[in-house]
């Protein structure tokens, strides 16, 4: 019988193989997004996180700017 920690290690190793395969051989979604690569080169842009402090910020000041968000920013 395999101990739980060893099972988890084997599972993590298998998941890592799957993740690395995706990096080496990009899937269809990544291929479709290639058209967006460098479309804003040379332009000013803002990258926003979704931490709790964002609630205190006046985001109206960014109107008309190029903004990239991540995680669950849409909840703000």
Brief summary of the model shown:
This protein is α+β, with helices and mostly antiparallel strands. It has helices spanning 4-24, 28-33, and strands at 45-48, 66-69. The longest helix is centred in the N-terminal third of the chain and has 21 residues, at 4-24.
Total strands: the figure is 2
Content-based structural category: alpha+beta
Q: Helical region count?
A: 2
Mean pLDDT: 75
The helix fraction, in percent, is 25-40%
* Gyration radius, rounded: 20 Å
Low-pLDDT runs of 5+ residues are: none
How many angstroms separate the termini?
A: 48 Å
Estimate the strand proportion.
5-15%
Shape: flat
What is the string of helix and strand elements?
A: HHEE
Please state how the strands of the largest beta sheet are arranged side by side: 1-2
Largest sheet: 2 strands, parallel
